[in-house]
């Protein structure tokens, strides 16, 4: 049985039940990355393995590009956790893309490949992401949402 929320509205002569569709948290993930450690391992091969072309282009355009790569890596790890799966389930880092809306300044998650299959199986309709980074740490939180009815 799917969960739902019922509202009781008092009318002039009768009570009316109203059912509303609500978003539910299906999963949540958080990850932190030590920027110095990540930077020491960051080379072209690793960048190509972990990131999609648009992510690489954006990060490389930044002054301290390694901080941006670290933050996106944290977001991908947090997304795995929010999906309730990971590399052992056949997902790859490039199945999760961190997209920057340069006009609004916001970011979002776009799923590809096997991650779309997981999304459909778990009935996830959206993923909310927040990232932050300093010269020392990068952190990301991802919330996977589904519908109640």
Describe this structure in words.
This protein is an alpha+beta fold and 149 residues long. It has one domain (23-147): 4'-phosphopantetheinyl transferase domain (Ribosomal Protein L22, Chain A). It is built from 5 helices and 7 strands. Strands 3-7-6 form a 3-stranded antiparallel beta sheet. A two-stranded antiparallel ribbon has the order 1-2. The longest helix has 19 residues, at 65-83. The chain is globular and about 50 Å long.
Name a few traits of the molecule.
single chain, 149 residues, alpha+beta, two-stranded antiparallel sheet, disordered N terminus
Give the secondary structure arrangement, pairings included.
Layout: E1 5-10, E2 15-20, E3 23-34, H1 35-41, H2 44-50, H3 53-60, H4 65-83, E4 96-100, E5 107-111, H5 114-121, E6 124-133, E7 137-147
Antiparallel strand pairs: 1-2, 3-7, 4-5, 6-7
Helix pairs in contact: 3-4
Number of separate strands:
7
Which residue ranges are poorly predicted, with pLDDT under 50 across at least 5 consecutive positions?
A: 1-7
CATH class category name:
Alpha Beta
| CATH architecture label | Alpha-Beta Complex
Radius of gyration: 19 Å
Q: Mind describing the biggest β-sheet?
A: 3 strands, antiparallel
